[in-house]
Amino acid sequence: MALVVICGQPCSGKSTAALFLSEALKDTESKLTVRIIDETSLHLDRNQSYANMNAEKNLRGVLRSEVDRSVSKDNIIIVDSLNSIKGYRYELWCLARGSGIRYCVLYCDVEETHCRKWNEERREKGEASYNEVIFEDLVRRFEKPDKRNRWDSPLFELWPYKDGIEKSSAAILDAVSYLTKKVDSKTHDVKVLQPTIATQNARFSEANSLYELDRATQEVTNAIVEAQSQALGGPLNGVSLGDGLPTINISRSVGLPELRRLRRTFIKLTGQTSLSGPPPPSDADSAKRMFVDYLNRELGTA
Ligand SMILES: Nc1ncnc2c1ncn2[C@@H]1O[C@H](COP(=O)(O)OP(=O)(O)OP(=O)(O)O)[C@@H](O)[C@H]1O
């Protein structure tokens, strides 16, 4: 029925918000089945799970698989974790779309100084808390949700420090209303995500791949634009992307509209290939390599 992604800095009141949202949903007449998926329910320890990139990737993978297994048309799943990486929220959004259900993000917006203080208070009370190095690292890498992104929309915002969190907080009531509203052909404000061929068939790694593809090709395009602007319209002797990556062999000036068109076509072609053939590249470097090869061919220099 729906997937709710809770998002916020470490120790910003996310679990409190998840719990109140769950209770508020259960209080509705619809007798909803609501389940919170969080680190604790999967017996994952905060400090171990965020100790390094591999552990963190593993944590995200475990949570995502659990969400993948659990989302259905009959229940509401609340993912209570940092969900602080934009690409990861995109993956969760793809899961919701693949299942043809509703989706929203509930964001606990608290300034890091207050989160830090709450975390210290937790530690002083002997409760489970983040160690300082991990806390600072997580705070630094937090990617704030932006309602203009499909995967951050609709976005319901709570301000736990300023307003506290209640079952009756406006953001919680708004989220409940959004998640439980009956939809018919005249309803415009509730979006039930529709699976596309791509998301129906996409396994998660592929959703991730498409995100990587999007980002990597954008980086290549940016590098070309940057190199051209530095050359001030003069001749270019290829654009280098760094170690281990092929050079973009362009010598003439290529305008942004043309680059955008090439990028769109490349993404489309690679996406289509993945439906029947191998998935698109799942790491940024292979995606860049493929896009550079494509550009070199299309721009007639390979
Ligand atoms: N509005 C508030 N005022 C004061 N303290 C608060 C408030 N909200 C949460 N806290 C405190 O912050 C701590 C963390 O709360 P909570 O577990 O809900 O946050 P969290 O974001 O889920 O944390 P984590 O990142 O560890 O999962 C708790 O100890 C709680 O007492």
From TrEMBL:
MF annotations from Gene Ontology: ATP binding
Q: Which InterPro entries match?
A: KTI12/PSTK, P-loop_NTPase
Q: Kindly list the residue ranges recorded as spanning the membrane.
A: none
Q: Which SUPFAM superfamilies does the protein's record reference?
A: P-loop containing nucleoside triphosphate hydrolases
Q: Does the keyword Endoplasmic reticulum apply?
A: no
Gene Ontology biological process terms, A to Z: regulation of transcription by RNA polymerase II; tRNA modification
Which UniProt keyword terms apply here?
Answer: ATP-binding, Nucleotide-binding, tRNA processing
Provide a GO CC annotation, any one: elongator holoenzyme complex
Matches recorded under Pfam families: KTI12
The family classification in the record reads: Belongs to the KTI12 family.
Q: How does it assemble?
A: Interacts with the elongator complex. Binds to calmodulin in a calcium-dependent manner.
What is the official name of this protein in its record? Protein KTI12 homolog
User: Species name for this entry?
Assistant: Juglans regia
Top-level taxonomy: Eukaryota, Viridiplantae, Streptophyta, Embryophyta, Tracheophyta
